[in-house]
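Hi U.,

Before I forget, here's the chain from the pilot set. I'm dumping it here mostly so it's searchable later in email.
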Amino acid sequence: MLTLIATGDRESDLYHWYEVREKHPELKSIPSIDASTPQGAAEFARRVETISFFGNTDIIVAHSVEITPQLVHLIHEYTGTIYIVTTVGKVPKTLQAKSAFDKCTDQMLKNLISTRLRTLSLSPTKEDMAKLYFTLSIEEYSGKERLSPLRCRTLVRQLMTIEGSTPEDARKLFTNLIGLVEGKASQWELLANLFTTQKRKQKEYFQSLSELMTPYEIMSHAKSTLLLVYAIMLGRKDHLDSASIATKLGKHPFYISSLLRTVEEKGITIDKVKKILSRLLNLEMALKSGKFDDEYFGFEVLLATM
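Structure:
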């Protein structure tokens, strides 16, 4: 029997695959074949053909399989169970498989998270949810951001650990979860500390951040954040509201509103954003050209002279 998980989105495929493994724990101990490599593709074909010949009923798990017409026959003849997670290329119409998996949409993932929050009797603000969705987002090839099925699944599993806590503890734990940023520094804190007049606080913040990220990563994140803020501020200059700006940029409206609130609270202006952006770009060029051979020193100079 063949179970095919091929939604057209690798993250959605893996999301469903982990769900299948939760229902069938025995699958967790079975090594997977990576058929995206020539060696892996040959191994998958060999396993299906050889085992079918001897009438074995072993379970085969393979990822990123290109299903050729020749493989279709072998798969149908196989007497055991096959799980294919993600296909490469067009799937032959003659392939017979159990497949009832859809691509994970943002709405589906938001409903999943909301259901779990209701179970915990938590009612976060729209701003908190916007921050949470930001940490759960990934960028598509088109540049548009969407929720990551795998990050959302991890969050749901984390929320499950809160079950049984008192309402007060549940709120505290959820607040901590919002602060857990997977691979991203908080844009709100980054902005606040880039534009603060309190140099000691700024130095402490970036020293702490440098323990998690390299100066290059911090500068890259600062640059992308400032470019986003610059685009938002240009939108406001053209008298657009948060919803219109969000639509243009492919972002969540509450996320845009929250960033704008930080901009207003810190008195950030377009000129200030352009100035720091220019400094960041010049430092980046100086580091890449070898004018600065110490990225840490270069970044400290930038902070000290802003």
